Amino acid sequence: MNQELSEQLNKTLVIRGKEIRNRLFLAPMSGLGHIAFRELLSEFDGYGLLFSEMCSARAVPQENRYVSPVFSWRDQELDRLVCQIFGSDPDTMARAAVRIEQEGFWGIDINFGCSVAAICKKNCGAALLRDPQLAAEIVSAVRRQVSIPLFVKFRTGWKDDPGYAADLARRFEDAGADALTFHPRVAPDRRSRPPKWEVIGIVKDSVSIPVFGNGNIFDENDGLTMLKKTNCDGIAIGRMAIARPWIFSMWTEGFVPGGNIYRDVAVNMTLLLEKYYNPSRAVKRFKKFAIYFAANFRFGHSIYTRICHGETMPEIRNHIETVFQTVPELVERPNMNMFTN
Question: Is 292 left (phi over 0), alpha (psi -120 to 50) or beta?
Fold first, then answer.
């Protein structure tokens, strides 16, 4: 454990009157930050907050938590769970926020970061960064209706203009956001180029509310470098949390992974997915998880193919047991060819 990093991350933080025990979060991720994965994370702990995957604001007011594949949760995680919503209409977003507060979530996160075509075509996610006034109106509408902490997740914009990102941040703060999660890439650039961490610092300097950095945090040195370089208030980890769900506990509590932890985590993931999803959806979600998980290994593509060679969870578990009879050769940093998915 990097003691300096641990000390920085383990500082408490108060956002809108609510204290967070540390400054290391699970970043909002569609199709990955679901209820099964969050339960897996809870077995290791070490995080300050968890963020749900994207929930459609249009659907949230009528959603059944026991049926919905995305708007679902365990009661015991609500005191550290932020619900992420997307939409393009202020009133619709506000109605979703009211339901979220009523259910007892720790906070709400507005997604202005997703640049997937299917989301942007609906004028949601990162598409709203093209219309700062509407984006700010959405934040303001949500703020007027709820009292719980309000996060905004966003990118630099659609052009490489740090000043534009800083202006967006100020607009979000003025509209009532309590904290920002900033991913310093332009919206069209999924992961083809490295994020520009220096822009996190520019955004941080432009507002008085907490700013959490996100993007290409793979090891403790990356985490400490981001904190020092940008002066951000904390870190939101995405893909590395999928690859190594114990990373929060490692960085904040000194957890040391041992035994055949990779085999154990993969098997447990299959069991939890079976617990919450029908067989077809469970297999699909495991395969999405497995891309990032397999990036831990030198021959990650081969391992991914082998453990995912099956159409049912029992078949996949059998393949996991075979592959991990001995631990495959690990790499210190993930296979980036797999991490660009």
Answer: alpha
Same-domain check for residues 191 and 300? no
- Rounding to the nearest 10 degrees, give the CA dihedral for residues 229, 115, 340, 318: 120
Determine which one of 83, 114, 120, 232 is catalytic: 114
* Tens-digit pLDDT profile for residues 319-330: 999 999 988 999
Question: For residue range 203-260, what is the model confidence (pLDDT) as tens digits?
Answer: 999 999 999 999 999 999 999 999 999 999 999 999 999 999 999 999 999 999 988 9
Mean pLDDT of 262-279: 97
- Return the pLDDT at 190: 65
Annotation says 114 is catalytic: yes
Number of domains in the chain: 2
Q: Final residue of a domain: which of 186, 219, 253?
A: 253
At 233, which amino acid appears?
Answer: D
Query: C-alpha angle 170/56/275, rounded to 5°?
Result: 120
- Tell me, yes or no, whether 79 and 161 share the same domain: yes
**Are 213 and 237 members of one domain?**
yes
Query: Using 50, 70 and 90 to split pLDDT, how confident is the model at 310?
Result: confident
pLDDT digits (tens, 9 = 90+) for 18-74: 999 999 999 998 889 999 999 999 999 999 999 999 999 999 999 999 999 999 999
Tell me, letter by letter, the H, E, C secondary structure of the chain. Answer: CCHHHHHHHCCCEEECCEEECCCEEECCCCCCCCHHHHHHHHCCCCCCEEEEEEEECCCHHHCCCCCCCCCCCCHHHHHHEEEEEECCCHHHHHHHHHHHHHHCCCEEEEEECCCCHHHHCCCCHHHHHHCHHHHHHHHHHHHHHCCCCEEEEEEEECCCCHHHHHHHHHHHHHHCCCEEEEEEEECCCCCCCCCCHHHHHHHHHHCCCCEEECCCCCCHHHHHHHHHHHCCCEEEECHHHHHCCCHHHHHHHCCCCCCCHHHHHHHHHHHHHHHHCCHHHHHHHHHHHHHHHHCCECCHHHHHHHHCCCCCHHHHHHHHHHHCCCCCCECCCCCHHHHCC
